[in-house]
Amino acid sequence: EMDLIACPAFYTNGAYVRRKLVMPITDKIKPFQDRIDTAALGAFTVNGQVYGVPISTLSTSTIFYNVDLFQKLAIPVPPTYDDLKAAVPKFKAAGVIPLLHQGSNTVMWPMWYFETFSQASGDPVGKTQKNLEGTANFTDAPDVEGFKLIKQWVDDGILSKDSLSVDQDGMRAAFAAGKSAMYYGGTWEIPSLQSSVKDFKWGVFAFPKMDGTPGAPGHGGGADNGMCVASSIPPEKLDAAVKFIEYLTRPEIATLYLAPEQPIAASIKGVPQVDDAYAVELRKQAFPNTIKFLDWIWPSEVASATSSAIAGIVGGTTTPEDAAASIQTIFDDLKAQGSWPPK
């Protein structure tokens, strides 16, 4: 018999809710919901229903940059997309790669799509849910536009094609050595930056708004872990289970288990947070616009197909239209095989 489940956001979105292993607790948490960071709660919200309460630190995605180099080249911070495009000749004249990604680590490519699809669609999670329900398609105009926007970063010379042969260690090393001016990644990169970057100051700025896109920037991330209520819980135990979750959301209690992690941001309000400049900037710009990673709700086959498609776009071997079509084909095959929706 199971009452409460320590539920990672990845499995909650991708399996637990679909298989009805956890129950919605939307109304149950209303008396203490104001203690919970809104973006963090969004990681455990599916189709408008809350299935878990986040009790972890928060991650987000951002662009890390060489502050000294940007100052030397007189590049505005935070830059617009046009500022980055205009700076490409300056970077090249300085012998520096503008932006290098860990492209050989293919599972990290979808992070780019989380950003561009947010701007292309205006509602990346809602549109993805419709794709998975079969009321929309991965080949629709916003989906294709998400791939086109990634291609624009390459065509404009900001995102280097050399990224395709670079792994995580290579990306980090190139940045620390001053060979690249920027890289894009999650806040899990910060410990590496703190230990490896010795010769210049580094900073962060949010993935910029691209011209002509209807949607606002949305950065992948959220709360990684939470507490869910098992759908099989005996009714007489439900109130006690919710009371325990409420206890975990008390700021003085959350501080006990979250403060030792020195969070940049936390799912429970009132927990002490890092006050370094990069952390202040992330809380100001990135965290308020953080949305759940789409690969939390994609089938794994769609995530793999998206990774391969983006690598093809960056390398110039795949068009955005063909990329979207390849993903739709994979998804249609899943449905034809009876593997989707999950039973």
How would you describe what is shown here?
The chain has 343 residues and is of the alpha+beta class. It has two domains: 4-59 and 221-293, D-Maltodextrin-Binding Protein, domain 2; 61-219 and 299-336, Periplasmic binding protein-like II (D-Maltodextrin-Binding Protein, domain 2). The chain contains 14 helices and 13 strands. The strands form five sheets. Strands 7-8-6-9 form a four-stranded mixed sheet. A hairpin with a 2-residue loop joins β2 (45-46) and β3. α5 packs across α7, α7 (141-155) crosses α14 and α13 (300-315) packs antiparallel against α14. The longest helix is centred in the last third of the chain and has 17 residues, at 320-336. The chain is globular. 42% of the residues are buried. The mean pLDDT is 97.
Chain-wise SSE layout:
Elements: E1 4-8, H1 9-16, H2 38-42, E2 45-46, E3 49-50, E4 53-54, E5 58-59, E6 61-66, H3 67-72, H4 81-93, E7 97-99, H5 110-121, H6 124-133, H7 141-155, H8 168-176, E8 180-186, H9 190-196, E9 202-205, E10 219-220, E11 222-223, E12 225-229, H10 238-248, H11 251-258, H12 277-286, E13 290-291, H13 300-315, H14 320-336
Parallel strand pairs: 7-8, 10-13
Antiparallel strand pairs: 1-12, 2-3, 4-12, 5-11, 6-8, 6-9
